[in-house]
Q: What sequence folds into this?
């Protein structure tokens, strides 16, 4: 199926859901949280650079309960 045909079918489904009243409308907060979660996934959930195992951690390295991958 062509991309154009898929888009057309999806568009009809979206319009039908809005007419029926079952479509989800994002709030600014929901959209912000979804974008943040997507960013975490694309970075591997780290949110910062990985410190090499031979480097001495600085004062900014807080104990995160072992959630980061340090090559162990």
A:
């Amino acid at each position: 199926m062509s991309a154009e045909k898929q888009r057309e079918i999806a568009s009809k489904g979206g319009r039908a859901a809005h007419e029926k009243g079952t479509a989800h409308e994002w709030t600014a907060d929901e959209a912000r949280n979804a974008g943040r979660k997507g960013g975490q996934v694309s970075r591997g959930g780290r949110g910062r650079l990985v410190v090499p195992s031979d480097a001495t951690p600085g004062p900014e390295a807080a104990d995160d309960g072992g959630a980061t991958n340090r090559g162990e």
Observations:
- The longest helix spans residues 3-20.
